[in-house]
């Protein structure tokens, strides 16, 4: 009996130690996940700040008032990004936990703003880098500057009486930004095909990644996702043509788009090129999610039929 009790005590001690080790390991992994989430949120907030201040860093003509406004915008954008990504619950950012959707979009916007800032900087202090980027923009601008093209419409959005230098600057900026948007869309499609997104991204949480989409609002989820995907693609196709028209129509009320305001030119052209490609990506992503849900349904129905099939 004494030997049996001793063996029992040894077994309890060993299993108790293993349980305690598992608890400690789970606590450590939980703390490590929290640290990673906080560091990732800080890195994203820093990148957003860098995006907002890049034009001010590269342009020489930045007044004190403009710098203060930019600093305020950068602070609020960084705070919104940090609290969005540090939180476990959904917020405003779509596809937050489904890379590389937001990464491709952010990279496209950052490169667009950076290159536009370099183009404008080249009008003040030309360098080899600025001249090279302006040459690419001029080439793409001339290729895409044909009747009723988006680039032609952006050039026509300038006020009447604009100088040849201002028209050329707008053509370069519009051509380069439009090229970046097309390249980002192509890269996004390639990445989705290579990674088989979102099937290889782990479990896709619709509640977190699509916070504005309510699956319980009524109707079939797959049909609603496909409908929203088509709407986003159509709007993304039309926006490059509609934005210049809206800018031209609003010139009498809010003032015409002018290349004399460097910050306004950079952000207006960047938004004109980024928003359509972003909507295209959103529509493509929602279509992929709808296809994934439909495939999961087919697999579930097939398993159910096999389970209930007679032996």
TrEMBL record:
Annotated transmembrane regions: 41-62, 69-92, 104-120, 132-155, 175-194, 233-259, 265-285
UniProt entry keywords in alphabetical sequence: Membrane, Transmembrane, Transmembrane helix
Source superkingdom: Bacteria
Identification of the protein by name: Uncharacterized protein
């Amino acid at each position: 009996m004494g030997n049996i009790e001793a063996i029992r005590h040894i077994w309890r001690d060993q299993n108790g130690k293993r349980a305690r080790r598992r608890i400690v390991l789970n606590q450590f992994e939980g703390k490590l996940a929290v640290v990673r989430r906080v560091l990732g949120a800080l890195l994203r907030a820093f990148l957003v700040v860098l995006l907002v201040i890049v034009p001010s860093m590269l342009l020489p003509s930045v007044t004190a008032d403009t710098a203060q406004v930019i600093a305020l915008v950068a602070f609020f954008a960084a705070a919104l990004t940090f609290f969005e990504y540090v939180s476990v619950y959904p917020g405003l950012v779509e596809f937050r936990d489904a890379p590389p959707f937001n990464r491709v979009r952010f990279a496209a916007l950052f490169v667009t703003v950076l290159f536009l800032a370099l183009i404008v900087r080249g009008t003040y202090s030309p360098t080899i880098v600025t001249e090279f980027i302006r040459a690419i923009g001029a080439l793409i601008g001339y290729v895409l500057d044909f009747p009723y093209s988006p680039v032609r419409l952006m050039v026509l959005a300038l006020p009447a009486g604009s100088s040849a230098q201002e028209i050329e600057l707008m053509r370069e900026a519009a051509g380069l930004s439009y090229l970046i948007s097309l390249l980002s869309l192509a890269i996004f499609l390639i990445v989705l095909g290579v990674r088989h997104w979102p099937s290889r991204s782990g479990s896709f949480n619709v509640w977190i990644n699509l916070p504005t989409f309510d699956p319980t609002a009524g109707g079939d989820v797959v049909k609603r996702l496909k409908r929203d995907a088509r709407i986003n693609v159509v709007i993304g196709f039309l926006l490059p043509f509609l934005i210049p028209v809206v800018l031209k129509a609003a010139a009498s009320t809010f003032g015409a788009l002018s290349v004399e305001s460097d910050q306004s030119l950079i952000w207006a052209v960047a938004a004109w090129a980024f928003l359509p490609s972003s909507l295209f990506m959103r529509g493509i992503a929602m279509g992929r999610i709808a296809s994934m849900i439909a495939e999961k349904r087919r697999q579930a129905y097939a398993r159910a039929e096999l389970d209930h099939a007679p032996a």
